[in-house]
Amino acid sequence: MTKCLVKRTLFFLLGAIMVATAAGCGGASDTKKADTGKKISVKFSHVVAEGTPKGQAALKFKEILEKSGQFEVQIFPSSQLYGDKEELEALKANNVQLIAPSVTKLVGFVPAFQLVDMPFLFKSDQAAYNFYDGPKGQQLMNTLKSHGMLGLGWWPNGSKHLTNSKRPLKTPADVKGMKFRTQSGGVLDEQFKALGAGSQTMAFGEVYQALNSKAVDGQENTFNNIDTQKYSEVQKYMTISSHGRLDYVVITNTKFWESLTPDQQKIFTAAMTEASLFERKLADDLNNKSFEKLKSSGKMEIYTLTDADRTAFEKAMEPVYAKYADVIGKDYIEAARNSK
Ligand code: LMR
């Protein structure tokens, strides 16, 4: 366990240094970097509640970075400042300097990020972490550079599960005819299509209302998002399916990054590395706590897929691979599948 953590920490540091070095090259002129004594303002916008792994890690990052005395970090949680689509546009315009979207939401820039949505792909949380920290994960993160964005770290959340207001979902046939909210991208639409269900893409901030008004019947998310968004108030059933993942990449604007001195970039990178390690440890913990809370509240009827059920879902969702393997890249899929 400790050995594992040390290994992960090393990977992380290495990845972060590589990002910082690569981004630092060809950076800003020294005049731009003159120390005016004024603190550098960093706005961090995200869509989830503060009590989530992302919300807590953003606060941790602020705490660490501000200790340097050189930065002032403002955090805007719960889509207060921008929703899903707007936060990406705001980052590109440098109106915010940090966002941490679910990687699915980057599909408009790099379709390969939908890798995370491929059904039943990673063997475990650890396999996902190892993929992100390995060469293929770093390669994927670096694809953002050609879009004026710089990935600074992977912040995994965890496995997704299905909730709905209609009936218990035990077999693929139970899903037929329902309509689910999706985050974005064709893979998730295809996944529900493979189960004979419909889907509608919708910003995270609109999901509760859509479930409440029955504009959609269900959604898929981590235990912690289901809990902190209070979906159990408007959903009667939850199936523990772990059929896919929800993970984030922390992104900054390249121009902002290049306006920092090498020293400031180092401070920023170190704070991000520490916040990222904190986030990973927390994600597991908060998802477990949320699951216990959802269970003990008794508001939703909970069903856990058996091995046989799981195999049936895996088989039903198999067509997603035929359709999306080339869009995403077989090399990414292979690496993710083989990750341990
Ligand atoms: C969602 O839209 O369901 C998630 O991406 C929200 C989040 O950021 O966890």
Q: Bound compounds, please? A: (2S)-2-hydroxybutanedioic acid
**Largest beta-sheet details:** 7 strands, mixed
Question: How would you describe the shape?
Answer: globular
CATH topology: D-Maltodextrin-Binding Protein, domain 2
Provide the gyration radius in Å.
Answer: 20 Å
Structural class designation: alpha/beta
CATH superfamily, please? Answer: Bacterial extracellular solute-binding protein, family 7
Task: Report the portion of residues in β strands.
Answer: 15-25%
Structural domains: how many? 1
SSE ordering: HEHEHEHHEHEHEHEHEHHEHHH
- Calculate the terminal CA-CA distance, rounded to whole Å: 14 Å
CATH class group: Alpha Beta
Supply the CATH architecture: 3-Layer(aba) Sandwich
Find the count of extended strands (DSSP E, 2+ residues): 9
How much is the average pLDDT? 91
Summed up, what is this model?
About 45% of the residues lie in helices and about 20% in strands. The chain is of the alpha/beta class and about 350 residues long. Helix 2 (about 55-65) packs antiparallel against helix 11 (about 260-295).
What's the layout of helices and strands?
Elements: H1 2-24, E1 40-45, H2 53-66, E2 71-76, H3 84-92, E3 98-99, H4 125-133, H5 135-142, E4 149-164, H6 172-175, E5 179-182, H7 186-194, E6 198-201, H8 207-212, E7 218-221, H9 223-228, E8 237-253, H10 254-258, H11 262-297, E9 301-304, H12 307-317, H13 319-328, H14 330-338
Parallel strand pairs: 1-2, 1-3, 5-6, 8-9
Antiparallel strand pairs: 3-8, 4-7, 4-8
Helix pairs in contact: 1-11, 2-11, 4-5, 7-13
Bound molecules: (2S)-2-hydroxybutanedioic acid (LMR).
